[in-house]
Queue: 2 jobs
Job 1
Amino acid sequence: MPAARDLRELLALLEERGQLRRVRAELSPVLEIPEVLRRVMRRRGPALLFERVRGYPGWRVAGNLFGTLERIKLALGAERLEEIGERLTRALAGPPPMGLLEKLRGLREALDLARYAPRQARRAAFEDTVLEGGEASLERIPAFKTWPRDGGRYITFGQVYTVDPATGVTNIGVYRVMVRGPREAVVHWQLHKRGQQAYREAGERAWERLPVAVVVGSDPATMLAGVMPVPYPLDKLLFAGVMAGRGVEVYRLPSGVPVPASAELVIEGYVEPGREAPEGPFGDHWGYYDRPARRFPVLTVERIWLRRGPVYVGTVVGKPPMEDAAIGKAVERIFLPIVRLLLPEVVDMNLPEHGVFQGIGIVSIRKRYPGQAKKVMMALWGLGQMALTKILIVVDHDVDVHDLNQVLWAVAAHVDPQRDVVVVPGTHTDELDPAAPYPGYGSKLGIDATRKLLEENNGRPWPEEVEPDPETARKIDRIWSSLGIDAGG
Ligand SMILES: Cc1cc2nc3c(=O)[nH]c(=O)nc-3n(C[C@H](O)[C@H](O)[C@H](O)COP(=O)(O)O)c2cc1C
């Protein structure tokens, strides 16, 4: 099944599969809808469509669309999410085509990449209503207040579109956006993110304005592309096409920013390098309110575009697991082939939901040489957003990284703390990490839980692992059912 073409197609598909519930009670986007969403996310329940939104006649609100991996796969029309990363790596890795047939196959794969490129749409769904001047007020939008001490109303699942001044590539980032007034908002793109990079580039070029568009509710591939840690400067619209399996239809706004033609809501505006305002507090995905307000760029609204009968999409973050835990898992699966292209010894990885994605990462490797586990740690701490992972645990290839009990066994049985634990002080870290001494600056912990080679073990061979006697095991296999143990004996 192909990826859904817009939000409404996705809602219909989820409803058909019994994965969407409609809520008819009238609820407010201030605390009430977020509280219902929070409870449903905790239970890994269905997507919700709120049909009556207090104070916002004509609007509907959707949430928890991506609360399970199954729904994400359904939305993207992918049986395996790794398939998406493989579409990219296939084009780059593998022996060069030699024979004619192989050359033709290589050509087809190159054409495949072109097939994922964005396509220009003549019309956009959101042209139904265009609000300008005083009409273009953010007060018309059912932005959430998610936690009682949040510093204001937030667009929590908006995709922030920018065109990079240095490269011309489009970025899509899911960054929270705080409503500051009818025509002003604050964009929370963090230090290590591509949105902030575009902003810095604009400042260095002495641009007076960097055009920005905030999109809410589009086809699921572009919504999720905003969360993907795509290496700079790969175009995120192209990556969204790779995720959808076809090019995204885009509409170029008067400001020049391309946005998906299927969007429900587009806020068009600009940020001015140097013009910043306090942002927060906000209850974030670590389960804490952020530190006291820090400054981020002010977005000035020029135009608001709306599809008729608009459907707003919002999410809530907090102590895991919430919707973003499932989205984090999808990122892990999609990027595994790309990590493996760069670090071929990597077998699998697990960014456990309760480890807050950037808190703890577990990686299994096929180890060949001494020190390799630490080499993998150093590589990952330098690789895109994997670099923000605070604690890395490296295990051997035969440990299932998704079985935390197996991982604990490997840590308990294979780690000599003095030899196998590294603490790297004074490093980059996630800006929101509540334990870091300074936002964006902290330290790393690496645990090498692989079996040690001679060189790593003072020249002593690693002990022999207990295994059943094969002949006895075969015999017991044959008579196992007759022992009646499985039947509760
Ligand atoms: C619900 C949700 C909210 C997020 N909010 C922010 C945010 O406020 N700021 C931020 O920098 N990243 C935020 N992220 C993470 C980014 O979307 C993610 O790091 C993404 O890869 C950024 O894209 P970029 O590499 O193009 O900057 C959020 C993710 C989710 C799922």
Job 2
Amino acid sequence: MEHPLKSPARTMFGAGTLEELNREIPPFLHRILLVVGNHVVTGGLLARVREILDGRELVVCHDIQPEPPLPDVQRLIDAGRRNGVHAVVAIGGGSVIDSAKTAAALIPASGGVEDYFNGSTVITAKGLFFAALPTTAGTGAEISPNAVLTDPATQIKKSLRHDTMMADVAIIDPDLLAGCSEAVAVYSGLDAFTQAVESYISLGATEPTRRYALYAARLLYRNLPVFCADRGNAEARSGTAEGSMLGAIAFTASGLGAAHGLGHPIGALLHLPHGLCCAILLPKVLRWNQPVCGELYAELGKSCGVEDFVGAVEELCRKLGVPENFRSYGLNESHDDFILKNCRSGSMKQNPRPMSDDEVVAFLRTVS
Ligand SMILES: [Fe+2]
């Protein structure tokens, strides 16, 4: 198969699966680099994790910036090498997981993260054992073999990717989502929804990826508004987490589309959350793709229980408070060159209706 489904060696899903963490890490991996989101430290979850991992030696790191900048990742690599850790565990949002994933890959290798980011060195071997536990439902970082990093010197944001970067175990416990803020729930959830929809219509989609993506889109469409309004709702939390997980399995194999292709450079330029960029772009990208996606939209609409799928996506974004364009964030013509130069990623190549440079510029006027 051209785009095989890939996922971590073990993926556990369900409320309370956090309790399995210690059993999932081989006992001889004694010293662990534990990378956590700041809310894991302040919200009391870290204390519970320490109890679960009792008997292991923990090197705890936090303070990872969003869209992880290379120096934050290097700090983790240095801490891991200095302490001779045997494994890496990440508990947090996409940025925490992506930076920890990179550290797990590079701690036993040589050189700094910048060398790999610039392409002057490549990953050639499997890194340390890596466990990922998401506390947001969105990026799919726990499932994917890539890490989205940012070089603060150039503002360039791109993926470091290698099949061996896939987590050894992903533990998706929807209860860990209970502590996320409304803004994080909205942005990460809409990222997950965009991923499911773009995967479904992607040029790289296959029958199996479409099945996962369709079900993911349905779960997210139905559960996201409830989850965003009330993170205490266990059913909506579980549906959102499951949709995010299944969408990630789909897009890791199929690739994405123009909302992601354009969202990355726009987010890096304007310092906006990835999910917000995706959500502003998604309805307009769906309209752009309409001439070639009529049947696929009809299927998505049927699965979500709506007549007009694109209209329903617009309504969903509006309901969740997403602005219609980037005008209030200052996007304008002066940004065109940077976006053009940095949008030609794999995501753009998988968009079902190709966009020439002139068409990208014309498209940008509709969102600026
Ligand atoms: Fe995304």
